[in-house]
Amino acid sequence: MINRREVILSGLAVSVFGSRAFAQGGGDIAIGALWPLTGANAQVGTDARHAIETAVDIVNGAYDLDLPTAKNAGLVGLGKAKIKVVFADHQGDPQKGRAEAERLITQEKVVAIAGAFHSSVSATASVACERYGVPYMCADSSSPSLTTRGLKYFFRPAAHDEMFSKAMFDFLDDQRKAGKKIDSVGLFFEDTIFGTDSSNVQRKLAGERGYKVAVDIKYKSNSPSLTAEVQQIKAANPDVLLPSSYTTDAILLMKTMGELGYKPKNIVAQAAGFSDQAFFDAIGDKAVGLISRASFSLDLARKRPSILKVNDMFKARAGRDLNDNTSRQLMAILILADAIDRAKSTEGQKIRDSLAATDVPGDRTIMPWKRVKFGPDGQNNDADPVLIQYVGGEFVTVSPPSVAVSEPIWPMNS
Question: What is the per-residue pLDDT across 367-381, written as a single tens digit (0 to 9) for each?
Fold first, then answer.
């Protein structure tokens, strides 16, 4: 929950900013985009820019795509106004993220902000948005605690880590029922809100479902060495390693395991760094057989034709396919633009109310979701995750059975 001082500041800010529409030059509607554009996760920010710019093309142009705002050029509810995106770099620093969110609102006059990859940054930036009565669209930050703070301007279309972890343990249960030996899991997680929240959920689920936690390691994000940690994992040798790490740590983990001659029986990762192209570019065939939870799979294109068309648009910019992160970023902008269009206003309160009334069927997204409909806490509880496995230089969907296109390779090093 936000504290009393924050509530007072929120009321003051809304009285100043929420009572009028922001002025927009040239008919443009400004949206803020808050991602790491420099630093250890700069590639994530670069890919996010490509995803967001693709979404902007879809909104501002007219395309034969069954997606929100796609068929009309611009926002019809605002006289076909175009959206423009103002990018800001939080560098993976929560306080920098908060300051940049405030700058976007007060100086750039954005009507909403999307972000931010790091859950720790979404935590601070969304409170800043709450103070000013400006909607915060949480595109790809997955900490469950982000929707437990009583914020009214916070919205997340994608799943959080409790939903992702449940899908992961459902998969493990299915494998065990199929006769595979899975008695123990190993937790390996970085020390920010993302890793801590992820491990808390996984520890709880392991206990409830009868899996022994063979090793439980919390490490400092962006550590220069993980040798001691990998030695602990190797000694415990869990049946499944469940890592929660950002890109540089994920690369270092895999390289260190290789240097120490350790091959995990199985890895089921909490995406993040394990879904970043930079990870696969860096570690090559060491990732073969790795399974990750995901919000997106190209396999779904056989059921939702818009996926391939949108992927082609993104790939023309980025030189790579959409992935777990970029698909969520792109879809978040489309959902936000659709809400602004329906609000027929740039006022924060009206956009917020329009977001709260969102009800988009899953087949009008590029995701495997049932629909996009936000609960009172701003979470879309119909954002169904999938599990994907890295085989032959690409990911294939292996769970749940309703959308799987391949049986999993298990163990991964078999």
Answer: 999 999 999 999 999
